[in-house]
Design goal:
16 strands; homodimer; alpha+beta; L-amino peptidase D-ALA esterase/amidase; 11 helices
Chain lengths: 421, 421
């Protein structure tokens, strides 16, 4: 079968991000040769003194073998010592043999670093339904443990090793303050890496995200933050509406930084940390959209004035998943009727006469019909850009949501119809 | 803007259907010039002695002006005297002016034939958000009423006039028996016409269907049949998961045929009629899929063994709406992992170990993994065909559903991104 020609997405950031290392985290990569040649496809994230960890996972009812493993060990409440990731094989729909492969990998990592297997998170991404050849993975583990280093270079290599059909690596760092009542703040660092293009890659590229921080936070507080912020970051992006069997987002805290003890997720001392963590998560999520297969335009959909946030999100996703909206934007076509259609099919509480839609700064609707100032030429000119904003105000109540997506081009079809890696 | 080059779908039937006329129904067409040149775009269906009518309509909350009109007049329980349809302008999101345009058209038809306006069904299909120029429609109505004829040639012209981006006209006829207890059967005729390609045409082509019969059935019985059979015909097809503002399906009975009086929808004497009506509806629905924009393959998805029918339909639609499944089929790629993904995201009750998936006659899964006899070459060969069947047995209970869809090709994107008629 032909191989896809990988061209960097035109929406990729022009300059690579500066990545900060995280005290207590070391990383290594290696080449298993399972699917990819001439590149690393294994990533080990090693926490010297362990880490408090939270995770969110795919809601798929055909979730891959590593997902069940992760859910179980996070439930065990042991400190996590390492995360292993392989790219190229999802270990999904692989039956009992797939479950065994997860255990064999976890045991190999545990033996190499001297911990229990249930302290090792296992993640996979790649093709579904093929046996995971763990015998190609385990021989590399001892050397990875030995060579793991904290340098930002290692973070960069890690962000590349977890990719499948990604056309550029995705990493973001931020610093934040965690304060105490005396006004003394400690500086905390957060670094995250991610892979994926929604579900749009030839073999169903999964969304994987690994975020580490040196903050000293307990698993329940981390889980609370992660679950809440995930709704407005990774769960607010859509490329094609498909859901992976392997989606995984991990937040790990090494406690290497010293700061005021935090016992509640709503402690005001966490405000800046929460803001910066959200920035890391939203920027990683947007990088995934910027790498959507065939994408040439980033689309931001703001919905406000809804009966509640869930209705706003429903409308945002109906617009963001509509093939007709996404193809119109791909073609630079001022076909705003398709947005009306998408709003109508969302099943949300709306009053057509109150709908105020704007694309960019251009007002589209009023009183249940086209706005009196609407000029198709102005809208068509705006639609030629590569950063399109759609604003929908339902004018009912205060519910709101923001969704990010990309346009749908012929290249998406070409890649997904013609190629399999 | 460039105009689309209309090529007949490669999935169009090789021979045009034989259309039977219906006693009590006369048809006429005309050219309004609103959107299309050199073709008729107005259709009048005239019931000499009135008709009992049932309807099902889009669930969109931004439904077009004619939808509210139809719902209201069907509620009035007057005998319907005529149906008017215009193609090229949806009269959707057109505010109060749009509602007025519907009333003006209904009044014009009512005056021409001598009935009340609420005996006239109005339907529209085409571009959203543009004022409907009713002044281009009403001048044609008197002549249409005068020239309306019952011939099958008029049915054929009508099936063409209601089309927008359709590449072939869609019409089906069947005869049925409605029996009495003495074993005496009367022959009934059913003829239906439809337009649409799901929601996939440049300006959101609507699904419209008009079915007429000479049976003598009351509106409640017709409504019961239509609602029930619609679920397994027009509501079991998907091209791109989008929902029109204008979807309308009308069933009209002229009572020109004499048969046993029917007072209940479950009267055994209706069995053959119900079967034949379902055939008409399913065949029209499949013709719409065969005209899906860019479609090169018809995909039939059978789901059985589900906890209940709703779960089976949810899974069928998740597969049928998955871009990754539809692009894989477009490319003839044996990428069955995408079916696993789609089943997983459906939110239905499943047990992965019990899933039995077959594509054509080829068994794909067993015991939560790939089937031992699976051979990719055999599946790849099957995937080159233009009629693809996917069978999913959940092996849980007796729920079942069948969904029809088409593949997703680059031509879909090209048409929807680059053109607006």
């Amino acid at each position: 079968m032909r191989k896809p020609v990988i061209q960097t997405s035109p929406l990729a950031p022009k300059t690579p991000p500066e990545i900060s290392k995280i005290a207590g985290v070391r990383l290594a990569t290696a080449q298993s040769g399972i699917t990819y040649q001439r590149r690393d496809d294994l990533m080990l994230m090693y926490f010297d003194k362990g880490a408090a960890v939270a995770g969110v996972f795919t809601r798929s009812s055909t979730a891959a073998a590593p997902i069940a493993w992760c859910r179980q060990i996070l439930n065990d409440k042991s400190k996590i010592k390492a995360i292993l990731c392989n790219a190229g094989n999802a270990n999904a729909f692989t039956g009992k043999e797939g479950e065994e492969a997860v255990k064999i990998c976890a045991k190999a990592v545990a033996e190499a670093i001297g911990c229990a297997p249930n302290q090792v998170i296992i993640t996979s991404t790649g093709v579904i339904g093929e046996r995971l050849p763990h015998e190609n993975i385990t021989p590399h583990i001892a050397a990875m443990v030995k060579s793991a280093a904290a340098d930002s270079k290692n973070w960069h290599e890690a962000s590349k090793a977890i990719g499948t059909t990604d056309t550029f690596p995705k990493a973001i760092s931020r610093t934040a303050k965690i304060g105490d009542s005396a006004g003394t703040d400690s500086t905390i660092t957060i670094t995250g890496i991610a892979k994926g293009s929604g579900m749009i890659a030839p073999n169903m590229a999964t969304m994987l995200g690994f975020i580490a921080t040196d903050a000293d936070l307990s698993p329940p507080i981390l889980q609370n933050l992660l679950t809440q912020l995930n709704e407005v970051s990774f769960n607010a992006i859509t490329v094609d509406g498909d859901t992976s069997t392997n989606d995984t987002l991990i937040l790990a805290a090494t406690a290497a930084a010293k700061h005021k003890a935090i016992t509640r997720p709503d402690d005001p001392a966490l405000a800046d940390f929460t803001t910066k963590l959200l920035e890391v998560m939203q920027e990683l999520a947007q990088l995934i959209i910027r790498d959507g297969e065939g994408a040439r335009k980033l689309i931001t959909i703001h919905v406000k004035g809804a009966a509640h946030d869930a209705d706003a999100k429903r409308i945002g996703l109906a617009i963001g998943n509509s093939l007709l909206v996404k193809t119109a934007i791909a073609g630079g076509d001022a076909n705003w009727g398709r947005i009306i259609m998408a709003i109508g099919k969302a099943g949300a509480n709306i009053i057509p006469q109150k709908l105020a839609i704007a694309i960019g700064d251009i007002k589209i609707t009023q009183d249940g019909k086209r706005h009196q100032d609407y000029d198709e030429k102005t809208l068509t000119a705006y639609m030629q850009g590569d950063d399109i904003t759609i604003e929908v105000d339902l004018n009912i109540a205060q519910g709101q949501a923001t969704i990010w997506t990309c346009d749908l081009t012929e290249r998406y079809i070409a890649i997904n119809a013609d190629y399999r890696s």
